[in-house]
From TrEMBL:
Protein keywords: Cytoplasm, Transferase
Known role: Is involved in the conjugation of reduced glutathione to a wide number of exogenous and endogenous hydrophobic electrophiles.
Highest classification ranks of the organism: Eukaryota, Viridiplantae, Streptophyta, Embryophyta, Tracheophyta
One Gene Ontology term from the biological process aspect of the record: glutathione metabolic process
The protein's name in its UniProt record: Glutathione S-transferase
InterPro entries reported in the protein's UniProt record: Glutathione-S-Trfase_C-like, Glutathione-S-Trfase_C_sf, Glutathione_S-Trfase, Glutathione_S-Trfase_N, GST_C_Tau, Omega/Tau-like, Thioredoxin-like_sf
Database matches in PROSITE patterns: GST_CTER, GST_NTER
Localization in the cell: Cytoplasm, Cytosol
């Protein structure tokens, strides 16, 4: 994998169960970038994590030459822009297509993840049933978007994974767990 130059140093502060960290890992791999994975204990947060993300104190955090970038979708966009000549593009080149991709990524963030979290942590059957119904409705809407955006190909972006695929892809393991539960 490329490092983006000898001076480029990438460290990812993350935790293996986080779908948000998985998003960033997928983006790093799509860009073909070398990085150091620094696993975090989310119960006993490291000084590095707390100093790197003093506002939210959560993962993921990308350290690029020691400078922190926080929030998974922001990190994915940052990687795509900072390493534009490396690996494949994640965001579309066309501004309209880029706006549409950002819209659907925000939809995933706002509709799917909160319902998944609620379904997995529900303490009553009523809450779990309502959250599951919300997940299914959101996925049905997303499926319609996929049919339109993919143009019959395997990814939202067409032939290769793009921004919406990365945004949703981090949740695959959670979706499988949710399905089992």
């Amino acid at each position: 994998m490329a490092g983006g130059g000898r001076d480029e140093q990438l460290k990812l502060l993350g935790a293996w169960p986080s779908p948000f960290v998985h998003r960033v890992r997928v983006a790093l791999h799509l860009k073909g970038l070398d990085y150091e994975n620094v696993e975090q204990d989310l119960v006993n947060k490291s000084e590095l994590l707390l100093a790197s993300n003093p506002v939210h104190k959560k993962v993921p955090v990308l350290l690029h030459n020691g400078r922190p970038v926080c929030e998974s979708l922001v990190i994915v966009q940052y990687l795509d822009e900072s390493f534009a000549g490396t690996g494949q593009a994640i965001l579309p080149a066309d501004p309209y297509d880029r706006a549409i991709a950002r819209f659907w990524a925000a939809y995933i963030e706002d509709k799917i993840f909160p319902s998944m979290s609620k379904a997995l942590t529900a303490t009553t059957d009523e809450v779990k049933t309502a959250a599951t119904a919300n997940i299914l409705a959101a996925l049905e809407t997303l499926e319609g978007a996929f049919a339109e955006l993919s143009r019959g190909k395997g990814f939202f972006a067409g032939d290769a994974p793009g921004y919406v695929d990365v945004a949703l892809g981090g949740f695959v393991a959670w979706m499988r767990a949710s399905d089992k539960l």
